[in-house]
C-alpha cells in the first residue's frame, strides 16, 4: 500500500498559452490566466516559479480563455472581459500591482481576502462566535486566496515538499457576485469534493466516556429498542490505555486496547458490525509510539529503532519511513481487528521538523489516500479530522472540535456550517448538542438536534461527565419524543442526502449553501446568516434561542425569496415570499420551507434499521404549484454489493449510478416516476404525499396499479401504490389532476391555535382575537391596533406571521405586516451563561 499512498491525481502546470511571464535582475513575475475571471499571480527573486501541486491548487491546467496583453518596459496590463490587471514589473506592492473588477480595485497586500467568510480550523472551547478565515466569495467584486505559504507535494512521487523562501503565489477570483461560478472554478483548481459512502449520512453516536465493551453494545441495543437507527459508532480515546506509567508521558496518545474495558476488541467490533454499524477510533497521534504499547516492537522493527532503552518512537510525519510504519504496521493491525476508519484528533499546532509543513495537512492527506485499502468495507475512501486550510474539502469528513453547550454556540453553528461552503468545505461534523460546560437544557438540546438533522453530518456527542450525555431517553418525555422523531427523520432523509452527495461532487454544489449563493443581487440574502439552502429547493431557518414564555414557541427572523413556500413537515401555513418573516414553531417543529415545484424523496420503511440500506419503500413529498423535477441517485450496484475496487483512484463515472428521474407537470397534473437506470431487478413501494394540498378531491390514477388515498388531517393528501417493478421499461405515471394549488391559509383557524396555546390572561386574548377575526375596518388600521396592545411582543409577532403569511387568504395582512420589537428570547439564558464563564476553564 505504501507506494499507492503517495500517488494521487493532479495536473498542476498551467497551459503555456495562458502564461504571461518576464522579469530581470532580482524581480521576476508570472501570471497564469486560468479563466477570464481567475488569475494566478507569482513573483520570485531568483526567476523560478512553482509548478508542483500545493495543498490548495492541484489542477492548474485550464482551457485558455480570451485575454489580451499590453506591455511596455516598465508596465504590464492583462485584460479579459471581467478584469483589468496593471503591474509595474517590480516586486509586488500595493502601488505596483492592482486588478480592477467592475467598480472595485484590489491592490496587492499579501493577504487573503473574502469578506463573506470561509471556515476555521476548530471550534475547540468556543463559547459562541469565532473568527473565520476568508473564503473565495466577497461583497466586493473580487476575492483573493494567498497561497505563498501552503504545503507542496512532489509531482513525481507524491511526497510532501516545501517552497523556496521569498516567493509570492496567489489567486484572484474576479467573479463580481457570481458566487456559484467562483466555487465551481475553485473546485476545478483544487479538486472536487469526494463522494461519501451512503452510511456516513445517517446518525452517528459519539461520547467521550469510559465505556466497557458490554456497556457500549448494550447502549447500541437500547437505541435499537427505542427505534432510533444508527450507522456509525465512534469510540473516543478511552478505547486505549490512558492510565500509564508517568515515565512514558501522558496517556493522550495510545494504540493499545484497554483490556480492562475491552477484553476482546475483535469480538467487540465484530458485534458492532453485526448490528450494522461502522467503527471509528479516536487517535491523538502527537506522542508517537511508546515502549508500553503492544505494537512498540513491531513498529520499532520496521524502523530499525533501538528498543533496548525503551526510547519512544517519535511522531514525525515528515519522515516517510515513520509514516509507512504508522500506516502499514500500527494502523493495519488495528484495522485487521475491525477498525473501519480513523478519527484523527490533532490538536498540537502547525509545526513540524520541516518549516512550512503542517502535520494536520500530512495526516489528513495520507490518511485519506490510505483509506482506499478499506473500501470493500466502507465503500468510499474516508477520514474524519479537522480543517487544515483551503483544499481540505478533498479529505472529508471534518470534525469541528469541542464546542461548549451554550445558546450562543448553537446560534453560530448554522452560519459556521454555511460559510464553510465559501471555501468549498461541505461536510462538517459538529458535536451535536455541544461537547462540554454550559448548562443542561432540554430546549437547547432539542434545537441542536434539529439543526444536526439538517446539517451535513449528524453526530451526537458529549464529554466525560456524569450529567452530560445525549441519549434521548435521558431527557424529559417531550424532549425525548422530539429527539427520537428527528433522529428517525435523519435516516428517512438519506435518499435525498445521497443524491445531494453526488450533486456536491459532480456538480460542485455543496449540500448547504448560504442564501446569497442563489440570490447574489438581493441584499436581504446577506442579512440572514443562520438561514441556508439545504439542496436546491429547500430553505432551513433553524431556531437557535429558547421558546418565548408566553407563546411557548421559538422564533427566527427569516428572509423568503420571491415565490410561494410551505413547511415540508408542518404544512398548515403557506408563505408568499419576497420579504422578511418572523417564523414561530413549538419545540417539536423547525422551519423547513420548500418552494412551489419541489420534489423531496424520503425513505418510507415502516421500521428503520441500523446502517443505510437502499430503501424498498419510498415517499415523494410533492409541493404543487409549479413544475418540478428531481433525479434520485443511488450508488452503483458494485458499491452496494461491496465490490468497490481498492486500487481505483477514480470516482465512478456519473453514468454508472442508479438513477430514477421524477417529474411533475403542473399543467397536466401528471407525476412521472422512472424509468430506473442501471438498477437491479427489484420491486419498490411508492407513495406520494401532496404537501399542503387537501382542498380538492384528487383522483389518482395509475394504469395497472392499485391506488389508495388518504387525507390525514396533517395538511397533506397521500397516494399509496402497491409494489412497482423498478424496471418498468417506460417508468409509470400518476394522474393527479390539472393545475393543483397549495391550500389557502385559514387565518382564523390558525390564529385561534396560536392564541389558544399562549400562556397569558384569558381577558388579554380577546382583543387580539377580535382585531383579527371580528373587526371590519381596514387591515392596515387593525394591524396598527395589534401593535399598540399591551400584550407580549412575541404574541403579536406569532399572530402577525399567520395573518400576513398568505396573500390569497381572506382578510390577509400581507403587505401591511409590522413586527414588534422583541427582547431576544435568549437574553435570560445568555445572562446565566455569562455568569457561568467565571466558573469554566476556557
Helix-strand layout with pairing:
Blueprint: H1 2-5, E1 19-24, E2 27-35, E3 38-44, E4 68-72, E5 75-79, E6 84-87, E7 97-101, E8 104-107, E9 143-146, E10 152-153, E11 160-161, E12 168-173, H2 179-190, E13 203-205, H3 213-225, E14 232-235, H4 265-274, E15 278-283, H5 296-303, H6 320-337, E16 341-344, H7 359-370, H8 375-378, E17 398-399, H9 407-420, E18 428-429, H10 442-453, E19 458-460, H11 477-492, H12 494-507, E20 512-514, H13 515-518, E21 532-534, E22 538-540, E23 554-560, E24 564-567, E25 574-576, E26 579-585, E27 592-595, E28 598-603, E29 617-623, E30 628-634, H14 637-640, E31 658-665, E32 670-673, E33 683-691, E34 707-711, E35 716-725, E36 732-735, H15 747-757, H16 762-773, H17 779-788, H18 793-805, H19 827-836
Parallel strand pairs: 13-14, 13-19, 14-15, 15-16, 17-18, 29-33
Antiparallel strand pairs: 1-2, 2-3, 3-12, 4-5, 5-6, 6-7, 7-8, 9-12, 10-11, 20-21, 21-22, 22-27, 23-26, 24-25, 24-27, 28-29, 30-31, 31-32, 32-36, 33-35, 34-35
Amino acid at each position: 500500500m505504501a507506494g499507492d499512498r503517495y500517488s494521487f491525481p493532479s495536473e498542476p502546470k498551467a497551459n503555456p498559452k495562458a502564461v504571461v511571464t518576464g522579469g530581470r535582475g532580482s524581480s521576476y513575475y508570472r501570471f497564469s490566466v486560468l479563466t477570464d475571471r481567475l488569475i494566478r499571480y507569482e513573483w520570485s527573486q531568483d526567476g523560478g516559479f512553482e509548478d508542483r501541486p500545493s495543498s490548495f491548487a492541484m489542477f492548474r491546467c485550464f482551457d485558455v480563455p480570451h485575454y489580451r496583453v499590453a506591455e511596455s518596459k516598465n508596465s504590464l496590463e492583462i485584460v479579459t472581459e471581467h478584469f483589468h490587471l496593471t503591474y509595474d514589473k517590480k516586486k509586488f506592492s500595493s502601488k505596483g500591482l492592482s486588478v480592477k473588477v467592475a467598480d472595485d480595485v484590489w491592490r496587492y497586500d499579501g493577504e487573503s481576502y473574502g469578506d463573506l467568510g470561509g471556515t476555521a480550523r476548530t471550534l475547540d472551547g468556543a463559547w459562541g462566535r469565532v473568527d473565520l478565515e476568508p473564503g473565495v466569495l466577497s461583497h466586493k467584486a473580487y476575492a483573493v486566496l494567498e497561497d505563498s505559504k501552503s504545503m507542496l507535494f512532489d509531482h513525481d512521487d507524491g511526497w510532501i515538499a516545501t517552497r523556496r523562501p521569498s516567493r509570492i503565489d496567489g489567486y484572484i477570483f474576479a467573479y463580481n457576485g457570481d458566487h456559484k461560478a467562483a466555487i465551481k472554478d475553485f473546485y476545478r483548481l483544487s479538486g472536487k469534493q469526494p463522494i461519501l459512502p451512503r452510511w456516513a449520512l445517517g446518525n452517528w453516536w459519539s461520547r467521550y466516556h469510559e465505556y466497557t465493551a458490554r456497556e457500549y453494545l448494550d447502549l447500541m441495543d437500547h437505541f435499537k429498542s427505542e427505534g432510533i437507527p444508527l450507522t456509525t459508532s465512534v469510540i473516543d480515546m478511552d478505547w486505549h490505555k490512558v492510565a500509564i506509567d508517568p515515565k512514558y508521558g501522558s496517556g493522550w496518545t495510545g494504540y493499545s486496547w484497554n483490556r480492562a474495558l475491552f477484553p476482546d476488541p475483535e469480538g467487540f467490533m465484530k458485534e458492532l458490525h453485526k448490528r450494522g454499524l461502522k467503527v471509528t477510533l479516536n487517535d491523538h497521534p502527537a506522542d508517537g509510539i511508546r515502549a508500553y504499547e503492544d505494537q512498540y516492537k513491531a513498529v520499532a522493527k520496521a524502523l530499525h529503532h533501538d528498543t533496548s532503552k525503551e526510547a519512544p518512537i517519535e511522531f514525525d510525519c515528515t519522515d516517510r519511513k515513520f509514516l509507512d510504519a504508522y500506516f502499514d504496521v500500527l494502523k493495519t493491525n488495528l484495522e485487521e481487528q475491525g477498525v473501519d476508519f480513523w478519527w484523527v484528533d490533532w490538536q498540537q499546532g502547525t509545526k513540524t521538523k520541516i518549516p512550512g509543513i503542517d502535520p494536520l495537512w500530512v495526516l489528513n492527506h495520507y490518511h485519506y489516500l490510505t483509506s482506499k485499502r478499506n473500501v470493500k468495507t466502507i465503500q468510499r475512501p474516508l477520514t474524519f479530522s479537522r480543517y487544515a486550510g483551503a483544499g481540505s474539502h478533498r479529505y472529508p469528513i471534518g470534525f469541528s472540535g469541542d464546542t461548549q453547550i451554550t445558546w450562543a454556540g448553537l446560534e453560530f453553528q448554522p452560519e459556521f456550517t454555511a460559510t464553510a461552503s465559501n471555501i468549498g468545505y461541505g461536510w462538517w461534523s459538529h458535536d451535536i448538542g455541544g461537547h462540554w460546560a454550559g448548562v443542561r437544557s432540554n430546549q437547547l438540546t432539542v434545537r441542536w438536534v434539529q439543526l444536526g438533522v439538517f446539517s451535513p453530518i449528524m453526530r451526537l456527542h458529549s464529554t466525560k461527565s456524569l450529567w452530560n450525555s445525549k441519549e434521548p431517553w435521558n431527557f424529559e418525555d417531550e424532549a425525548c419524543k422530539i429527539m427520537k422523531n428527528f433522529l428517525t427523520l435523519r435516516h428517512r432523509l438519506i435518499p435525498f442526502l445521497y443524491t445531494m452527495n453526488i450533486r456536491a461532487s459532480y456538480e460542485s454544489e455543496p449540500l448547504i449553501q448560504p442564501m446569497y449563493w442563489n440570490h447574489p443581487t438581493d441584499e436581504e440574502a446577506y442579512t440572514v446568516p443562520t438561514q441556508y439552502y439545504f439542496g436546491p429547493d429547500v430553505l432551513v431557518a433553524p431556531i437557535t434561542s429558547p421558546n418565548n414564555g408566553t407563546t411557548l414557541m421559538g422564533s427566527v427572523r427569516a428572509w423568503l425569496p420571491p415565490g410561494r413556500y410551505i413547511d415540508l413537515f408542518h404544512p398548515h401555513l403557506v408563505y408568499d415570499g419576497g420579504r422578511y418573516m418572523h417564523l414561530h414553531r413549538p419545540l417539536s417543529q423547525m422551519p423547513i420551507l420548500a418552494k412551489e415545484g419541489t420534489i423531496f424523496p424520503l425513505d418510507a420503511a415502516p421500521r428503520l434499521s441500523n446502517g443505510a440500506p437502499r430503501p424498498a419503500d419510498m415517499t415523494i413529498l410533492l409541493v404543487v404549484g409549479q413544475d418540478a423535477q428531481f433525479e434520485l441517485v443511488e450508488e452503483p450496484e458494485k458499491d452496494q454489493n461491496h465490490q468497490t475496487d481498492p486500487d481505483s483512484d477514480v470516482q465512478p463515472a456519473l453514468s454508472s449510478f442508479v438513477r430514477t428521474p421524477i417529474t411533475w407537470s403542473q399543467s397536466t397534473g401528471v407525476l412521472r416516476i422512472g424509468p430506473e437506470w442501471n438498477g437491479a431487478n427489484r420491486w419498490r413501494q411508492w407513495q406520494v404525499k401532496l404537501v399542503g394540498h387537501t382542498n380538492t378531491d384528487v383522483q389518482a390514477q395509475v394504469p395497472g396499479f392499485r391506488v389508495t388515498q388518504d387525507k390525514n388531517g396533517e395538511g397533506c393528501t397521500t397516494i399509496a401504490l402497491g409494489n412497482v417493478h423498478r424496471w418498468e421499461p417506460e417508468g409509470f405515471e400518476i394522474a393527479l389532476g390539472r393545475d393543483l394549488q397549495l391550500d389557502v391559509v385559514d387565518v382564523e383557524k390558525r390564529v385561534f391555535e396560536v392564541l389558544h396555546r399562549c400562556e397569558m390572561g384569558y381577558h388579554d386574548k380577546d382583543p387580539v382575537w377580535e382585531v383579527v377575526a371580528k373587526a371590519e375596518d381596514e387591515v392596515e388600521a387593525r394591524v396598527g391596533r395589534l401593535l399598540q396592545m399591551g400584550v407580549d411582543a412575541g404574541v403579536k409577532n406569532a399572530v402577525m406571521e399567520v395573518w400576513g403569511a398568505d396573500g390569497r387568504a381572506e382578510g390577509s395582512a400581507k403587505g401591511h405586516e409590522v413586527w414588534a420589537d422583541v427582547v431576544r428570547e435568549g437574553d435570560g439564558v445568555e445572562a446565566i451563561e455569562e455568569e457561568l464563564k467565571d466558573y469554566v476553564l476556557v
